[in-house]
Amino acid sequence: MTGIEPKRVTVLGGGSWGTALGVLLARGGHRVVVWDHDPAVREDIAKRGLNERYLPGLELPERMGATEELADALDGAEVLVMATPAAGVEDAAGRAAPMVPKGCRVVSATKGLCPRTGRRMSQVLQETLGVGTERIVALSGPNLALEIVAEVPTATVVSGSSREATLGILRLFSAPTLRVYSNPDTVGVELG
């Protein structure tokens, strides 16, 4: 456990990065629900507790599951982790927008820029989800999904316009093998 009250976390994107972040959070005592556009990935996570396509052989924690319905994934979410590829962020966020609970914090864990507009992911999420910048926190590297799930000591950085939100996400993701730093330069964190 991380020493903070367990949260209900929704991860949009069941690739290796989204799954690894979900595993990290579930190991920290949080309840994690994954939604991915691919029904096979969702089913593998929900029914077998595995994600053989992206992280073969890794048994997922019991506190981590998946659902077919996006509305079910977002129901009661306190934190939304956006971990889809950059090309899919606008679509996934657009589909999720009407269902994101009021007050839910949004973690932008997608690397890169929007291919269509060239905008940073936090900008795309603000516009598409219709939430204020104070609810969005960017999470960046340097780290790899396999390092996270193998519990190799590594680090990451978070940044957002709200110090309170940024520190809350810093605490949420901190783990014995993951050191999370904060940085006030959100643009630098997203581009660097």
Query: What summary fits the major beta sheet?
Result: 8 strands, mixed
Mean residue pLDDT: 94
Helix content: 25-40%
DSSP strand count: 8
Pattern of helices and strands: EHEHEHEHEHEHEHEH
List the strand order in the largest sheet: 3-2-1-4-5-6-7-8
Beta-strand content estimate: 15-25%
Shape: globular
Q: Structural class, from secondary structure content?
A: alpha/beta
- Rg of Cα set: 15 Å
Describe, in short, the structure shown.
The chain has 192 residues and is α/β, with parallel strands linked by helices. 34% of the residues lie in helices and 20% in strands.
Q: What do these coordinates show?
A:
The protein has an eight-stranded mixed β-sheet with strand order 3-2-1-4-5-6-7-8, with helices on both faces. Helix 7 links the parallel strand 7 (154-160) and strand 8. It is built from eight helices and eight strands; from the N terminus they run βαβαβαβαβαβαβαβα. The protein starts with 7 loop residues before the first strand and ends with a helix. It has helices spanning 16-27, 39-48, 70-74, 89-96, 121-129, 145-149, 163-173, 186-191, and strands spanning 8-12, 31-35, 64-66, 79-82, 105-108, 136-140, 154-160, 178-182. With 192 residues, it is an alpha/beta fold.
